[in-house]
# Entry
Amino acid sequence: MQEHVQLSQKKINDDLLAGVLGMPKWWLGAVGFLLLVIATGIGAYGYEINKGLGVTGLNRPVLWGFYITNFVFWIGISHAGIMISAILRLTQAEWRRPVTRVAEVMTIFSLMAALSNIMFHVGRPWRLFWVYPYDFSRGLFMNIRSPFVWDPSAVMTYLIGSTLFVYVALIPDIAVVRDRATGKFAPKIYGMLCLGWRGTPRQWKLQAIAGILLSALVLPVFVSVHSIVSWDFAVAIGVEGWHSTIFAPYFIIGAIHSGVSAVAMIMALAMWMWKLDNYLRPDHFDAIGRLLIVVATTWFFFFFVEWIFALYTLESPELALRELQVFQAPYMWLFLAFLLTSFFIPVPMWLFKSVRRSPGLMFLSTILVNIGMWLERFLIIIPGLARRQPLQFDWGSYHPSIVEILVVAETFAFVALGMLLFSKFFPIIPIFDMKEGMQVREEIKIGRRIVPASIRETP
Amino acid sequence: MAKRSVLGLFTEEQVDEAGDALEALASAGYTTTEYEVLTGTPYPEGTFGEAEPKHKLFRWPLTGAACGFIIGLVLTAGSQLAFPLVTGGKPILSIPPMAIIMYEGTMLGAIIFTIIGILLESRLPRLFMGAYDKRITEGYIGVTVTTEEDRIPRAEEVLKQSGAGDITRGWESK
# Structure
């Protein structure tokens, strides 16, 4: 890190708890707006439950539409959260400090949003409990061979694991809030949540080990979740474009691409909204920008290879699908937008240091990536199903209905509201991590230059 | 006999004095289980000359993984054997989906047990805070002694001699 603002522990507490102990003017308005969007989405979903899935644009043979697209999108976003946090923790990267919690918290809310899409999609959500092991009294147990059991087991493992991960890393910071909170109930609630944390050397040592150990445990889960989501498609042998052996790594790298972009986007938003300029520096955006170049290029390589594998077979149904995706409206326009927004506009932008160091431009470019990655999932799912198969007697097309659009908008509002509420009640930047970063930082003189350095032992 | 604790508070700059206090407490006959340092930020191990904390955390994920694996195996194999659905003349136990559920069970078990291990090894939850000062999370360093009530005055004296600013008492348990 070349830039650094040295702050006292008290100043760090004051800055990072400003949003928790006070309430900015915009906060209630933002929460109110998001609640309105959520209420509209829930209303639309209620209408769907009442009238049935006929109110959506789903139509034979396109029986997976916006909801499944959105499910894959949110699973993808959730991935980078823990991925970025875990890898940066494991490698002890100094620039991780203000970034990790934003990433981890985003994981939790995105996973919840992803799971809700399954509920929206199944039509009769009250039957979802058949997926879970319940009891033998009904005379029928879940069929564990079904991919629809793999998904909940993987996603729930990831959700439970990442929630516990966030909580453990949050305990020392909850203790800071406990010591600052006023009123009758707040100190008691925070006191209970931090479990009586005092900050002994033993507690700090285990906290450091926990960060690394849990990162190492959550990373394999993160890889498995998106692999399993991709197998929802890849094990369907009857759909061209889905039955591909490269889908698992291709989905994982796509998830990292969209997720790391989302982290950069939230970092910029958090910096503006909570005035965290002293903590989220241009250096942090620069670092995440460089990471994004690597991730985006790797993702593009997998995208390219997936296409080559498909075209190399020269099988007419596969070629027809690719032709539908690239040369026929409306998919051709979506395909063009997808390529431009997910790779060809943002990556050249990130090659410039001035762009990487600008929160505004990083915000803009990472929004583009997420638009592109949402379209990518749409283009994998819908054209694959929309193609007329042999012996198919009923053939319709897919147009998303207003119900689906409102429900999908609800998931975006839900994640935004979740982040907003979390940052109101808990510090969104790890306080103890920032304090430790200040403590281990030193300026050393090498020749005629004074450069910043960090010295830290390995736990 | 009810235990009591006493806390001596040192400023952020008094790191050496806090270390001296631990040495003085040891010289005065207090054991390492009776005194400890409280800080609002992690200091490098041994900063205050304190003993290296021993733990057995690494056993927890292994135990959890084993439990999760067994649950995954019983759940997958058991449900298929209890409700045998022959598909395409293939064996009842289908290994690939079993592997997925067993894998997730193993990882979930490992994670949950690790969390439990972290909390218990950190001696959390702690029902009684004992002597504590809110300024610790602001950068102050606390040296706390938890011992029988009759040994508290001597501990206070040692802390005062070492340069502690404020000294407060608290109940450790009732």
User: Anything to note?
Assistant: Strands of chain B lie at 3-10, 35-38, 141-148, 167-171. Chain B touches chain A through 59 residues (CB under 8 Å). Chain B is about 45% helix and 15% strand. Helices of chain B lie at 15-27, 59-82, 95-121, 152-162.
